[in-house]
Design brief:
InterPro entries: Hypoxia_induced_domain, RCF1
GO cellular component, one term: mitochondrial membrane
Strand content: under 5%
Pfam family, one: HIG_1_N
Radius of gyration: 19 Å
Subcellular location: Mitochondrion membrane
Shape: elongated
Helix content: over 70%
Organism: Symbiochloris irregularis
Length: about 80
């Protein structure tokens, strides 16, 4: 009989620092867009919201890529 793995044992997690940069950039652009909207600059606000969507997509792609990379690396 093989001993069971302790599923609650601490595991070393590798994190991609670019994901945090993307999240901060997304939050910054969101805040800038909200400030522009409050000041009545709807054109700038709209552009900032479109930029926010692009940053969110890039952040999600980084998260998915990091997960796939580290899963593949630990499997080999």
């Amino acid at each position: 009989m093989q001993p069971e793995e302790d599923m609650f044992a601490p595991q070393s997690k590798k994190r991609n620092p670019l994901v945090m940069v993307g999240a901060i950039a997304t939050a910054g652009v969101l805040l800038g867009g909200l400030v522009a909207f409050k000041k009545g600059n709807t054109g700038l606000s709209q552009q900032m919201m479109r930029t926010r969507v692009a940053f969110q997509g890039a952040t999600l792609a980084l998260m998915a890529g990091s997960t796939a990379y580290y899963s593949y690396s630990s499997a080999t």
